[in-house]
């Protein structure tokens, strides 16, 4: 009899990995009965024809946001003390004192932080959160769905969504095994593990070590290295267009060489538009010396700020905007959802650009899959003022310590060096590709093309031996 797996989407971030790749077809070919347990407003049935069960009750406990903020800060406090490292406070967002209501909430959060900032305190705080979520109507609603459909396992596509807590608790209380996929390469040190499940699937040995390091209540036999489906499309040659096809479709000049500028979200790089402007100036200077260059600007899919508009409008002869093919189905960042068509666009942007430039983005790995270099900007802009975040902070984060050397990216530490670095890469005299491939292997595991298959093999193993 086929094993019935609920692939659980608490929010939209997992759609790219687990709905728009070959993940489903691989699982079905291995004999699994797959149902998408869908907490998002994106209909998998209507849009993709998938078998889905919608979660219509989205109730969380009124105190959950307060307790979640306290949990995150308490965990970061423990990490700072335990590892004697001041990087952890830099992951914190500032407290909100705007108005009486927000001030009272902040005071309550700070009281909880003071009470629970220890390893034992965090366990108690997590237990309190679980108790709150078990009292919600959503918990009862999800429990009834599980009792009706009786899945053999619930596979949660991200560990970071508070919307998943009550649903996973309902599964565990019914004796249904639960798995959480750790969604992103930087998530573990940032105290973004919201859920506690029976098993955790991670990208790499590095990420497994981190889960065990930061969460002592998780045991080694609960954590499995599977890789991530995130990069699988880059190895799917069926997505490849000829340069002529791609350039014609998107209005690019076939006589030009294009550099991709990959935009960041406003939190990561609040002055990002000025780095784009710096690249424009470098390109103009090089074009004046005989090059024929253009820029493909691909924005961060969840950035809706107008901050780039002035630079783009003033430089239309140099910049071609190729927006990601994502759909906004709600007002929150996690309700901006990718489409399958964007895989094809991103594949070909990587394939037909000379290289990529950005501020500390994981797109470095998308491009290295196509043997393309990356420049990371690492200098302050003159527009930096008090209250604006310095992008240099990003490179001090824990996940950047996984770099095998500083040559895993081409770091531009001074604006005046940018033109020379661009020229050296174009001439083939400078590249980070080989060292970056080592870094990619450290971060994403040894078999980036086999992640979906490995996930299903691991699920099968767990269900066979339990």
Automatic annotation (TrEMBL):
TM segment ranges: none
Database matches in InterPro entries: Glycerophosphate_synth, TagF_C
This protein's UniProt keywords: Transferase
GO cellular component, one term: membrane
Record carries keyword Transferase: yes
GO molecular function, one term: CDP-glycerol glycerophosphotransferase activity
Source organism superkingdom: Bacteria
Pfam families hit by this protein: Glyphos_transf
UniProt key word Transferase: yes
Protein name as it appears in the record: UDP-N-acetylglucosamine:LPS N-acetylglucosamine transferase
Source species of the chain: Algibacter pectinivorans
Organism placement in taxonomy: Bacteria, Pseudomonadati, Bacteroidota, Flavobacteriia, Flavobacteriales
